[in-house]
Amino acid sequence: RGTKLHIANFVHGADGLGNMNFPTPTGKAIEQTAAAFLVSNANLYPGQVTVVALGPLTNIAL
């Protein structure tokens, strides 16, 4: 309303991912929550899991 929206697609491309044109995913969602998935895999592969948290840390906190 009074503030003009500026689209900055010159920074990260029109798709927000550098115009990488990734293929459409073919897999399906898993049944468990993200937090449960992290715990399960950390237990399955002790010392081998590295979490790179680039956004909200809710699933890490849980």
From TrEMBL:
Alphabetical GO biological process terms: purine nucleoside catabolic process
Location of the Inosine/uridine-preferring nucleoside hydrolase domain: 5-62
Single GO molecular function: purine nucleosidase activity
Gene3D superfamilies (UniProt xref): Ribonucleoside hydrolase-like
GO cellular component entries: cytosol
UniProt keywords, alphabetically: Glycosidase, Hydrolase
Pfam families: IU_nuc_hydro
Family, per entry: Belongs to the IUNH family.
Name of this chain's protein: Inosine/uridine-preferring nucleoside hydrolase domain-containing protein
